Amino acid sequence: MTIVPQMNLSREALEPYWLPFTSNRAFKAKPRLFVGAKGMFYTTAEGRQLLDGMAGLWCVNAGHGPERITAAIREQAGHLDYVSSFQMSHPLAFKLAGRIAGLTPEGLDRVFFVNSGSEAVDTALKIARAYHRARGDAGRTRLIGRAKGYHGMGFGGLSVAGIARHRRDFGPLLGDVDHLPHTYNREHQAFSRGQPDWGAHLADELEAIAQIHDPSTIAAVIVEPVTGSGGVLPPPKGYLERLRAICDRHGILLIFDEVITGYGRLGAPFGSTALGVTPDIITCAKGMTNGAVPMGGVIASTKVYDAFMTGPDEAVELMHGYTYSGHPLACAAGLAAIDVYEELDLFARTARIAGYWEAQAHSLQGEPHIVDIRNIGLLAAIEIAPKPGEPGSRSAAAGNLCYEAGVLVRTAGDALVLSPPLIITEAEIDRIFDTIRQAVRALA
């Protein structure tokens, strides 16, 4: 039996759903409803085709609806729909953990499954504190995030994040948290291609924070290798290396939030590989299942894992987990996603096409209202000067014009943010940036 999706809904039918990160009243007055997706394109309820410039929400790396992933989910649902991972599990969870460990930097080979990037971050922060306690250093509780950072919407991730509007309504948040400054300075970095030359010294702010609080009180530093939702900010050359060195000097764990940069976005399995800096813990999600089933993970070093493996064999080493950790359908999707990425040679393909992406992004320099362009891998942000007193107004208008022209982009403050499926072609890259060019030319 073929199920035909409901194409249009009445205003009354829209009311029960409280949408996340959405102006609900405005949306329900003029909804954007999608009813299908394949490859690089969404299908709207009106039957329009939209070129997806955001890979869903940074996650559909192999494009929408790869049959291998769909078939794997369908088959698994027919065999085993659910089993807990509390004192039991199923074979696919172990197979997926092994496949993931084969993609990570050397030494990062212990995988804890969760259901989202938000859960991954909160789990990583808990592991960091518990790690120090397990080693007899329970005084290390302080967590260091970074301005403009996004680490999901759990209380832990929100506490270490650095986007003020996300935090404003939910305080007080966790104590024992401090923040590094962000790495962006338009005066020194505008129109940089890839990693900016200026800004490595900003990592030294961690030394200043350590001296204020006493380094022996700091459990972990968490940063995105490339700031994503905060506006696509590639790390300055040498910055992550300096953070790594400072953490090593003071016995602080370094956590990379790779929810966006994991699974090929920078032309390597993980951003840490592409950027040549290995953290102690990686968080991942999004591309983990190609967005098909919610899933996230925390990938810890052997050093971190082994610190917990003491005491009686029967003891629960980490008193933490979720009902759906290692869900069978998610594991099936995760294994199939890795198969698809390998079959398409997607990580190497991304590295090859990233140069064309960069050139086309920077071809917008000199267009009206564009004050900066940032890119790395298959990520880009086009910064648009706001109208006086109206922050975000021009970028929102440009995003709407792109949508009407058949290209889906995301706005973040005054920037258009781009993160397409990694299967994108040069012709589709041209279409995205040509559409943005026409949109900014039409702005007042």
From TrEMBL:
The keyword Transferase applies. The keyword Transferase applies. Keywords: Aminotransferase, Pyridoxal phosphate, Transferase. One of its GO terms (molecular function) is pyridoxal phosphate binding. Its cofactor is pyridoxal 5'-phosphate. Pfam families: Aminotran_3. GO terms for biological process: biotin biosynthetic process. InterPro entries: Aminotrans_3, Aminotrans_3_PPA_site, PyrdxlP-dep_Trfase, PyrdxlP-dep_Trfase_major, PyrdxlP-dep_Trfase_small. Belongs to the class-III pyridoxal-phosphate-dependent aminotransferase family. This is Aspartate aminotransferase family protein. It comes from Phreatobacter stygius.
